[in-house]
Amino acid sequence: xxKRRVFVFCFLFLAGCSNHIIFEPxxxxxxxxxxxxxxxxxxxxxxxxxxxxxxxxxxxNSGLSLVFSEKxxxxxYIYNNFTIQGKPKSQGVVIISIRGGVVASAGQYFEKxxxxxxxx
Length: 120
Description:
Protein name: Lipoprotein
CATH architecture: Sandwich
Signal peptide: 1-20
Strand order of the largest sheet: 1-3-6-5
Keywords: Signal
Shape: elongated
Distance between the termini: 67 Å
Number of domains: 1
Strand content: over 45%
Helix content: 10-25%
């Protein structure tokens, strides 16, 4: 193999390893006190499926939560797809902080902060 082919191969390999993690939607719509709120979230990109995910919701008694779909293999839950849902209890801003990593990531971790503006 000549040096040029080796260079191109290495470049493509490294480019493939540096996929960005994408959250859809990037921002959340406003919610309303006492009304159902449900927004599906999809995490894509990276070097494989999300295998580690943690989150915090502030305030913790906001009425919102993350709901994950069950699956039948590998892990109990599908972390690439979930829904933020519930009935917001009070007016203000709810902050949802999400952290995690993807399989075969060689250290590819992500953090995302969502804000839900809850109106009366």
